[in-house]
Amino acid sequence: MQLSKKSKKRYLVIFGLLFLLLLVVYFVPSVLGGYALTEHSAIRYTFPTKDGEVVFEEEFEDKKLVIWDTGKVNYVKVIDKPFGIFKRLTDFNAISAQTVDEKMKITWSGTPIENELYHDVIFAAEVLDKGIEKVIVSNEQYDKKNTPLSIVKKHSTVFIEMNVKDGFAAHYSKLPNGDVGSFSFRGLNSDGKIVSFY
Question: At the top level of its lineage, which domain of life is listed (predicted)?
């Protein structure tokens, strides 16, 4: 059976439109509310739209944290998979706040969850001192470097231990609104000694 010229033209138009739609979905996630077909597209073609590479990734429930190295600034990005197939960037932040001792760069970000008394919160650290093996995030009021960790833990409603992998650490938490605010970051060496503080 041979297709008429009209049918061929119709198939070519339909195929062309589908191909164009696929390109739009892949390269411009913002067109579809931030949804993308691939994880790479969700990371690369959303703000900041700079070339780079994933240098850290970790899964938390239905979310994935990645650190995107652009060569100048590193960004922590949250990839959500709400429908299983599609991926969506739901939060990002530059890892740029540097400790006074220049041993770490840190960031955190909190996004209110609609109709809930909680925030989606991300924490990330870029470790510049190879001796730091763990980063602890807390929200105690004794925010001094020399405060013993036992006191810090006792007086914190948030106490998160992040293991450093290839110079980076990151964590996702769903926290009550009252726990979201001022956070301290402590870099620990292999002996558990605090060597950096923010």
Answer: Bacteria
Task: Indicate the SS3 state at residue 165.
Answer: strand
Indicate the pTM of the whole model. 0.77
CA–CA separation, 136 vs 115, rounded Å?
A: 30
SS3 breakdown of the chain: % helix, strand, coil, rounded to 5? 20, 40, 35
Query: Does residue 149 contact residue 194 with C-beta atoms inside 8 Å?
Result: yes
E strand spans, 18-131: 35-36, 53-60, 63-69, 74-80, 87-94, 97-98, 104-112, 118-127
Q: What is the DSSP letter of 115?
A: T
The pLDDT value recorded for residue 30 is 47
Q: Which residues of the chain have pLDDT under 50?
A: 29-32
C-alpha–C-alpha distance, residues 197 and 75, integer Å: 20
- Amino acid of residue 4: S
Amino acid at 78: V
Per-residue confidence (pLDDT) for residue 87, from 0 to 100 = 75
